[in-house]
Amino acid sequence: MFRFEKEQKIFDIAGVKVGGQPGQLPTVMIGSIFYHKHKIVKDEQKGEFDKEEAEKLLKEEEEISKKTGNPRIVDVCSSYPEAFPKFLDFVASTIDGPFTIDGVTAEVRIAGLKYVKEAGLSGRVVYNSITPHIKEDEINAIKEANVKSAILLALNTKNPTVSGRLQVMDELIAVAQRAGIENMLIDAAVLDLPDPGPVSKAIYLIKEKYGLPCGAGTHNAVARWNDKRKLDKTEYLLACSVANVFPILAGANFTLYGPVEHAKSAYFYCGLADAYVAYIATQEYRVRPQTKEHPLFKIFR
């Protein structure tokens, strides 16, 4: 294992701590609900969904989170502005911790921002996400909503390499600061099927240079691969396991692990990776976990 020379920032977002050196804190798990074609959603445009099943999914994830010690941020998705307030209101009233605003368009995300501002929920929100292509109206909406936490997507379509991701970082940080963001979580941006490799290297380099919490939605690479090849269940689970764990070994602090239905397996294999990382960090660098709820103390008991 290794230790970053750069001081590593740790942010507390509505009670969930994210960041730090390898072994200090568990990987924060970000699972999605109300995503496109989610079977619990009856009408995407109107925001009608099976509340009993949605609550069951979130409660199950909560129990799994307690079992492994990995904290969570619920990724609240929406395709339509009319539906977003209903989705956000439900999640905010069902869970105690932070959640994201993850709309497919700026219009949808801005609708979410207006709702959380009116409902007084801005302190629990992680905006997902700020990109180098963000427009002024969205920047202004984030600032007006007084949201202080956001995922910054290191997206460089002109140069989709490790160095390309690094090239957009200064611009991303400047834009986030203009929007009033204080807690910056960097998503190293999956673009291609084998991207968990380059993404992991980018996470390491971004943390080494900027000291900011980093992670990625490496599950997306597997989902795209599955769309092309149709992996069987075992292949899909193993591919997700490798893709989500690989960045943790490079220092990642969070993972967007995909649909919340995948919580049982995702928490287990990410928590196991956390335990391995923490154990070697304790031996080699005397870096002790900052919480007694760390997977190192829960996975093996």
Layout of secondary structure:
Blueprint: E1 10-13, E2 16-19, E3 28-33, E4 41-43, E5 48-49, H1 51-68, E6 72-78, H2 84-94, E7 99-103, H3 106-119, E8 125-130, H4 136-144, E9 149-153, H5 162-167, H6 169-178, E10 183-187, H7 196-210, E11 214-216, H8 219-229, H9 233-248, E12 254-259, H10 263-285, H11 295-298
Parallel strand pairs: 3-6, 3-12, 6-7, 7-8, 8-9, 9-10, 10-11, 11-12
Antiparallel strand pairs: 1-2, 4-5
Helix pairs in contact: 1-10, 3-4, 7-9, 8-9, 9-10
What is the name of the CATH architecture? Alpha-Beta Barrel
CATH topology: TIM Barrel
Tell me about the biggest sheet?
8 strands, parallel, barrel
Q: CATH class, please?
A: Alpha Beta
Give a short synopsis of this structure.
The protein has 301 residues and is of the alpha/beta class. The protein is built from eleven helices and twelve strands. It has helices at residues 51-68, 84-94, 106-119, 136-144, 162-167, 169-178, 196-210, 219-229, 233-248, 263-285, 295-298, and strands spanning 10-13, 16-19, 28-33, 41-43, 48-49, 72-78, 99-103, 125-130, 149-153, 183-187, 214-216, 254-259.
Describe the structure.
The protein is of the alpha/beta class and 301 residues long. It has one domain: Dihydropteroate synthase-like (TIM Barrel), CATH 3.20.20. 46% of the residues lie in helices and 19% in strands. The chain has eleven helices and twelve strands. It has an eight-stranded parallel barrel with strand order 3-6-7-8-9-10-11-12, surrounded by seven helices. Strands 1-2 form a two-stranded antiparallel sheet. Strands 4-5 form a two-stranded antiparallel sheet. A hairpin with a 4-residue loop joins strand 4 and strand 5. Helix 1 packs parallel to helix 10, helix 8 packs antiparallel against helix 9 and helix 9 runs parallel beside helix 10. The longest helix is centred in the last third of the chain and has 23 residues. The protein is globular, with a radius of gyration of 18 Å. 50% of the residues are buried. The mean pLDDT is 97.
